[in-house]
């Protein structure tokens, strides 16, 4: 029966609740899938924290401590259930529905009449599903809160039992992490293996001797590794500290050589927007195209000629077995397009077929400097012109992140955001006072004009297709990164112009001859063969290694000329560009299934992963204190929730694995000797044991207040840090 009378305020609150329920219900129906993912994130995090609180609850119950409330979720309370002498009592929305300010129970109360033993504990469901709490008589996170003669009070129990109750939350988090990992590995989890897919030239990895195809079998003492373990080891290393990698290298005949040790010291890359150390490697890819799904008409989606689940089997007629072979063949492609043959299965009929897809290529610098950015790319001293491949239009942001970044530029950075004046396919022939700039010159001149107007002369095709010179004015702005030293940019992504063999300039090259070719000259023949683009130039040079050839050209004044090139035999040391996909096909990243052979193996894998993540969390804290890891790299609540949403929308199994990681981290964080968290309470209890009596209520109150302020300040800073990382990345 209803135990409370409704006053006017309660009726108003009821109307508000009904309106809120209808509004939320409508929002859920309109975004059902997104709500499902968000609910899984909330329930997952709630479960992890609830397990922590359940540890406190169960040990307190066993120890005879009176537990007044156990809540799944944080207030405001939606529902409270408790056994009473009259039966099972249900309290709905106790915060909103009260008869008076002195009404301590509150809510719409129903009692289900039944014979049951009264319980001291009310079980609650809170509106905010990210966790829960346990309310014990005579206890709070700061220690004892009041004196009581009740023997069931937390304050009246032995210090050993109280420490056990407080430590039980952490213990349950560790146990739950082990169980989560056990279940995940019994089911099987697809993770990126510790296989090197690419190595950045000039990076610590290349200098140390790592190669594409190498497989890392252990990092230090850890032998249960995937690719993320390589990234974590680099990020958590000290400046100049060498990471020990045991590596096995593939043999040409198949299989791997015996493992050998490589030591590499991580550094911060110039291309990173966060101060995170790395060694300069990327994960391995496959030859399989991702599942692209179906369009609104139910037809398979095609992307640049590729269908979902296509498998590349050859490049320009040469069979390939892995992505490394494919990339090597593409990088030496003699044409401005690579022909990829794919095996294809019709999703409706199941029939197998093959298809040849011509994928456009562009020339990409093959000599980036890991610490400073791109060096000047050239072909035996000849530098191609720069062509604009992409122009950022800040006035048309895509998605919520782009809109937030636009707001930031206008309101925080106080920038005037205008539509871009440069266009895709513009050829840069002058920037400032520099003719035919290289990558390095473009970067240098742009930086010199930070927040100042800069003239750029480009070649652009007009509406009739005629090429003409166009001068535009831009204002370079610094790209704000968490490093605080972001590059000054003009919102373009330039590439080398490979379509027309015009030499922007020639540069001195160590160990080779600088060709005497004037800026803006158009190459017409190389070694007596006509050339149409720089792919022809490179093809002819490569086939004439060890010979001397003549290069004919037309200067920008239309006067003919020539230069002589002596081509050394051997590796292409004097060609620092390579062919690359203009639009990368949607290849799947390499994944391997990590699966236990049985329950015993699963327990071992669960224990090993839990131990690894606990050790990584402790190491992160140590590196933060020593300054080896920047606090700017941390993810707070917003970053973790965003990451969780992205994970759960792609893989439920991996999300469960991620919750095991979070549970491991929470175990460590809760043991920190800080007020409010479990570690701080344990310290207070140890002090009480040594002192022979608890600290005074006043001292406990001050410590509690300081702890709450610190936690709230840290929480606020992490939210701010997350927002900056999202806005500036």
Task: Summarize this structure briefly.
The chain is built from 14 helices and 38 strands. The chain is an alpha+beta fold and 729 residues long.
Question: What are the SSEs and their pairings?
Answer:
Blueprint lengths: L7 H23 L1 H31 L4 E18 L2 E6 L15 E6 L8 E15 L22 H29 L1 E3 L4 E4 L4 H5 L6 E5 L7 H9 L6 E7 L11 E6 L1 E2 L8 E2 L2 E3 L1 E5 L12 E2 L2 E2 L3 E5 L2 E2 L3 H9 L5 E9 L6 E14 L2 E2 L3 E2 L7 E3 L1 E6 L7 H13 L15 E5 L2 E2 L3 H10 L5 E8 L5 E8 L2 E2 L9 E2 L2 E5 L5 E5 L14 E6 L2 E2 L3 H10 L4 E7 L5 E7 L10 E5 L5 E3 L2 E3 L4 H28 L10 H12 L3 H19 L7 H14 L5 H32 L1
Helix pairs in contact: 2-3, 2-11, 2-12, 3-10, 3-12, 3-13, 10-12
Commentary on this structure:
With 729 residues, the protein is an alpha+beta fold. The strands form 12 sheets. Strands 22, 31, 32, 33, 34 and 35 form a 6-stranded antiparallel sheet that branches. Strands 23, 24, 25, 26, 27 and 30 form a 6-stranded antiparallel sheet that branches. Strands 17-16-18-19-36 form a 5-stranded antiparallel sheet, covered by helices on one side. 33% of the residues lie in helices and 27% in strands. Among the domains are: 285-365, Pdz3 Domain, CATH 2.30.42; 382-392 and 423-574, Pdz3 Domain (Roll), CATH 2.30.42. It is built from 14 helices and 38 strands. The longest helix is centred in the last third of the chain and has 32 residues, at 697-728. Helix 2 packs antiparallel against helix 3, helix 3 packs antiparallel against helix 13 and helix 10 (599-626) packs across helix 12 (652-670).
